[in-house]
Amino acid sequence: MLRAAFSGSAYVGVFARATDDCLLIRPDVDAELREACAEELGVPAIPTTVGGSGTVGSLAVGNANGLLVSNRVRDRERDRIADAVDLPITTFPGRINAAGNVVLANDAGAYVHPDLSEAAVAAVEDGLGVPAVRGDLAGVQTVGTAAVATNRGVLCHPKATDAELDRLEEVLEVPADVGTVNYGGPLVGSGLVANANGYVVGERTSGPELGRIDDALGYVD
Known about the structure:
By secondary structure, the chain is α/β, with parallel strands linked by helices. 31% of the residues lie in helices and 23% in strands. The chain contains nine helices and 15 strands. It has helices at 12-15, 31-41, 56-59, 75-84, 99-102, 118-128, 143-146, 162-172, 207-216, and strands spanning 2-4, 16-18, 23-25, 45-47, 60-63, 66-70, 89-92, 103-105, 110-112, 132-134, 147-149, 154-156, 176-178, 192-194, 199-202. Strand 11 (147-149) and strand 12 (154-156) form a beta hairpin. The longest helix is centred in the first third of the chain and has 11 residues, at 31-41.
């Protein structure tokens, strides 16, 4: 576990995105902190923007099968990512294209914004190589901000219902539970970057919140 702030913000999930293969992180994060994050997550760090924006956690999502990024991605950004990690990169079509905000995924499945077009759902399934199911969480349609999924578990918005947790467990094939970050923040995807190896969380996150993250994401045997 690593508590951190990126450019003074505890909303680390907005600015970075991890899979079990790589860490995409905004390029102006201090090099020492970037390497500490990479070490915690056990993957190489790729400093990059997406579409010129440092909000790479909001604009990208991925799993072992590929990365899905906003259709605003620039050629040089795409090339930088492709040079650093051997994963196919798919662009996300349509008006709702902040892939990290609207897609919650691991290696088993994807749970996506309820208003995504058929083309966008197809891009998720093709780009990530998993079936995708539409839905929301605790009334939040940007499911990637309302939860964090790894291949070990899912941490969800504290108002997610039992039925929603059951559905997530069915889609993603891992246990799901609720929690908060940054001393009560319900949008856990905005304040947490995680993979199967470990996690980076906003610096204001409390001890009891860390315990919930450890339990939900399966870091405690």
